[in-house]
Amino acid sequence: MGLFNCLWEQQFLIHQCFSLPFAFLFYFLAKRGYLSLTYRYLFVCVGGCALAVVAMGVYSTLLFASTGVFVLLVCSVDPSRIHAWLFGIQMLWQTLWHLLIQYRENWLHEPVSIRLFVAVSSLMLLTQRITSVSMDLQEKQATLTFKASSRRKTCVMLFPLISYILNFTTLLGGPLCSYSRFVSLMEGFHLSPPPSPLGVVFLKLIQVLLLEMVRCCLIYVIKQNIYDPSCSAVLCGVLWMWSLALVLRIQYYSHWRISECLNNAAGFGFWEESSGDNRDWSGLSDGDFWTTETSTRVSEFARRWNATTACWLRRLVYMRCKCFPLFMTFGFSLWWHGLHVGHFVGFLTWAATVKADHYIHRYLHRKPSSTWRKLLYTCLCWINTQMIITCVVITTELRNMSGLRLLSLTYIGLFPLCNIMLLILLKFNILY
């Protein structure tokens, strides 16, 4: 199934590492006053276009087409209705390419270009930024006024929007930054430029290097100890699956951290505390390895995993749905990710176990009394969370039936199944 070849593919990481010098150049020129506000927008926009062409080739037209439709609708549709138009057209465009990939993989059995995968992944991030702006316009958190008599003024107002959509620091990876925050960050270089990010970027690059070293070591161990259900113990199969899922998750942590580095190198993501003594460069972050992996609850892990995307999904779906908001949110997430078989199983399992998590912990919250019992309870909750997330990651990342076969061979799928059974029992008050 070519799994390990996919694990070694790090196109996103490579392109973003090569983008770091340009981010530092932008910071240097903007802080020294060599770039006016207009030229700052021009720099990040042209940089995004160049990065798209280099990374995606001809498939960069997917992004440019979405941006063109976005600008056209912003100029012509009433703000109260623009969200429905942008959301519908963008999701249809994205879904078309997801289905095309599935058709070529599953029906034609043809290899799909890595450039197309990069383009579709970036298109998903573009959907986040476009719908974020459309919700801002609909909720009147941002206002745009266009006058037909003033083309120059119209171009000036559109320029920040286009730069926000095609910003090279977020083109290949998050974190998602709101349009108003992006504008304030760009304008802030003139008012109060952030301090030099060289030190913090270096430390975060070291973290990326350490994560990649751990990932390579785990890949080596997994390849040397392929699980054989006919002669291996059940515990060995569970540990092998957990290690495989950890490899896949570390790939995301590396990608998020290098994306954070790229934003920091450009001067974005810095917040100075009210005291003025503490300086924090994590204003734009999708989460880190330690905080996320130490989560003891499935719902807690879901909030921390890809944090800015989780906030976007909450705003876009959860807070707008009156019926079954949790399942509607995870259902939209599987649509946004591509509608593969593994996505259906993985995201619906995740939704059911998050729901079960609320009921189970509400029932067991006051049960442990002594310190040792509380410690045991915490450890068991962490193991349960890790096993459930392992099942979700395996099914969603492998995407096809191979992930489901692995779960059945190693019996690790019993963990989410037991949680769902407990949800049913608690839902009907059988255990009360």
From TrEMBL:
GO biological process, one term: lipid modification
Predominant location: endoplasmic reticulum
One Gene Ontology molecular-function label: serine O-acyltransferase activity
Topology in the lipid bilayer: Multi-pass membrane protein
Keyword Zinc-finger: no
GO CC field: endoplasmic reticulum membrane
Keyword entries, A-Z: Acyltransferase, Endoplasmic reticulum, Membrane, Transferase, Transmembrane, Transmembrane helix
Parts forming coiled coils: none
Pfam families in the record: MBOAT (PF03062)
Family matches, as InterPro entries: LPLAT_7/PORCN-like, MBOAT_fam
Bilayer-crossing regions: 12-29, 41-62, 82-101, 155-176, 196-221, 233-252, 334-354, 375-396, 408-426
Domain of life according to the entry: Eukaryota
Record's subcellular location: Endoplasmic reticulum membrane
Name of the featured protein: Ghrelin O-acyltransferase
